[in-house]
Amino acid sequence: MAVNRPHVEVLASPVTKRRKLVSKVWEAFTTNKSMDGKEWANCKHCSKKYARSSKKETSNLLKHMEKCPSRKNDEDQEKHSDETTATITTPVVNDNKIASDKEWNQLDDKIATDKEWNRLDVARMIIRHRCPWSMVEQDISKPFLNTLLPTSTFQSQSTLKADILHVYKEEKEKFSRSLTEISGRFSLTINFLGRDAAFRSICLIILHFIDNDWQPKKKILAFKKLGFWDGYWNKSRAFKSMLLDWNIDKNICCITAQNMEEEDNIVREIRKWPTYKDSVSTLRVLDCGCFVHFLNLLVEEGLLEVKDIFQKILMCNSYIFSTPDNDRKFRIAVDHARSQGKEVISEEVPVSSTYSTQMLDKALRFREAFRLLQVIDPDFSLNPLEEEWEKITRVHNCLKVLAEVGHSISGSRGLLTTNVFFPKVCSIYKNLIQWGKSDSSSDIRLMAYKLKMKLEVYWSKCHLVLAIAVILDPRFKFDIVESWYKEIYGQDADKHRKRIQDILKVVYDEYAGGFKNSTTSSADASTLFPDYVMLDHLGMSLTPSHGSDSDSGKSQKSQLERYLEEPKFRSVEEFDILGWWCVNTPNFPTLANMARDFLAIPVTAALANPTFISDVLKIDPISSDLDSEIMEALICLPDWLQIPPKTEANERGSTVSAQVGQLIPHSANQHSRMALRFSGPIQTIENEFLRP
């Protein structure tokens, strides 16, 4: 029948076709025929073409499937899609019965939880990278967010605020728990950053400590707004409330503030707390003035000595650039000065610029050009006298020494430990003494006297802390203190050296006998080297009785005495002092506790980036109108969320460095530890969506 003819033709056609494709490889390939009649197999994933043949056809295709990178990516995406779909699949029970109401409720809870987690991940990403809040409402970003997080719905900035607060509380609890595991004590810096529109004082509190891996840490702890009329008593009460909230009120080592007067008043109130009221020496809260703020005070005081002369130079500058003719004459004077080998500048000094050592340096380079301009232009009568030029040069040379000390701090890489500041302060003290004895200039003697008065206020507050910290530097020990005291105190050096020795002994005895963290840290130190038995100087096993400062059989030297008597580490500039103490903790466990606390004391409260608060406020115009809690979250969270994950390489590096340090003598273990440090991988955007 005619109606059956097509069916008959179809059945007959396989006689001329290839055999049926039965291999699973064809699930990843399509076949097509080119215009010349040649058959090809195309990879569905990367579109690579293979000519079809009867010999070893599937073998070649299978080899391609194993190596095809596009296929692997497609399968990973498909797997992720299947897992996502599985979370919203209708639940069933045995025998294909419909799920109960309880199972439906469990599914709803799971979907809601996933949506909440996904929203919090977006909040973390926005906080960490400081993305605009409007991102969750913009049409251009919705496809991106929906692709990454298909089960979530993004509503508004109000929802985002709630999510940020949720993340803040979650991360704060996590950070607070991590602080309870730290063996040492904590130091704090307090920065009063001015006032907001409501005249409330803006206060930033930063936590400084050395963690259990002997790594220095600096983390923002709080961002508070205090009332306009809050006195020091109310400020200290708010400060105490914050410390209680973090549960670190009994474990504070030192407080540093930019303004020493504010610092004194706050610390005075804190020392009245029951926790510290009966404590002596280091077990009470120490205070250490901000070194950068102190340097600025010295420079400002010195600049005042020549401010009138600097104003005359600015007036000369204004005269020169007031008319084209004056400018032309000045250019001629500059060319003459340069032809004589003099270093001069020809650009204008901005009148509105901040009066600083840099501006003073720039003004001094007009000197030769101004001198020649007086000859060329008879109307130019504003040039300072030669005596004034000499005075401003002498003052500039002195202030340049102070500025270089400040630059050495600001230009350093990483966090500076406390031991580096003692020689810097001592060098300033020595210079002021020498300037005060100057025979050639009474103005320098007067300036040195004024600066020395300010220095002695800072020195009386901080030099004990700085001296103890530098004694704990194995390159110098007590020798550096003795040497600098001879330079500063002359014949009275022995009296001051004896005082430092007595205070150091008192501090050590407190740590050895009463400090609550000493036992914990010593125990932790013993676990750093599980594969090795420590030996004493006679090659005997170092048992707990050997490691203590007293022995039942005979009196032994204390850890402090042994440390000071042992040979110093060679004086190299690039020295990882924390690495040295990490390796030598089993030998000096009590001193290691002291080092952990004293080396973490912040000697400067100055911010590395003073504008970062305003940078945060520029993220969104809405930020400036946020309440205090949201503002604190925006300031603190980016700092907390930037903690790098602990990688296998990091753990391996710590273990190897500890073992190598145990085996290599003190003179070589430092470089081994430095070489064996590893850094974690660079974080990519995918990390933002991994649940913590």
From TrEMBL:
Subcellular localization: Nucleus
Domain BED-type: 20-87
Region (Disordered): 57-85
One example of a Gene Ontology biological process annotation: post-embryonic development
InterPro entries reported in the protein's UniProt record: hAT-like_transposase_RNase-H, HATC_C_dom, RNaseH-like_sf, Znf_BED, ZnF_BED_domain_contain, Znf_C2H2_sf
GO MF, any single term: zinc ion binding
PANTHER family to which the protein is assigned, alphabetical: ZINC FINGER BED DOMAIN-CONTAINING PROTEIN 39, ZINC FINGER BED DOMAIN-CONTAINING PROTEIN 4
Quaternary state and interactors: Homodimer.
Designated name of the protein: BED-type domain-containing protein
Organism: Dipteronia dyeriana
Lineage of origin: Eukaryota, Viridiplantae, Streptophyta, Embryophyta, Tracheophyta
